[in-house]
Structures are given as C-alpha cells and as structure tokens.
Amino acid sequence: MLAATIGLAGSVVAAETMADPWPHSYDDEMSGSVQPIASMPLAFGRVVAVDRTGSKITLDYPAIPQLLLEGGTRNFAVQDAALLTGLTPGDKVRFEVEREGREFIVKRIVNSN
Fold it and tell me: What is the pTM of this model?
C-alpha cells in the first residue's frame, strides 16, 4: 500500500512540472479568443487562385506550427481585399494568418517573387 502511494505521488509531481505546450483551454480555442504568438514568423506558400470580389485567396502551403498542423491547399478569407492587389496564381508569398472561430483569416500577405 505504501509503495502504491509513493508511486502515485511521484506521478502527480511529474505531471505538475510538465510544461503545457499549448497553454490555452479548449473553450478559448473554440471561442476564437486565442491570439497568435507574436514571435511566430510569417508562413509561406504559393498562390493557387485569387478572388478579389469575394476577398478570398487559395494558397498551397506547408504545415503552420500551432495553427494548421498539416500543409495543403486551402481557401482563406482575407481581412482586406486590398491585400490581394498584384497577386496572381503561381506567386510565392509569405503571409500571416489568424484563426477567428472556425475561419482562418489572412491578415497580412507579402509577394516573395
């Protein structure tokens, strides 16, 4: 009985000292109140399509740590349609994207060509 208690106490101490890799609660994430990490560099990708009237852009991108764990091709809403000026399919870009609820919004985009 004593050995089981010591083993359990050791597990509790170990669990309490582990750093939380994602310090936000599930409720924060689902409400869209999680803010991006300021030190996170711009993501990069390639423009597949541009919809200026709908303020959307389709990007092909690699994984974006702590946001989109798998790379792929996705339609993103754009915060301001003016960000799309001069972008054409095939352009290489660097971009800042934030999650707002269930949607991913491009807040900044820079043409890398």
Answer: 0.64
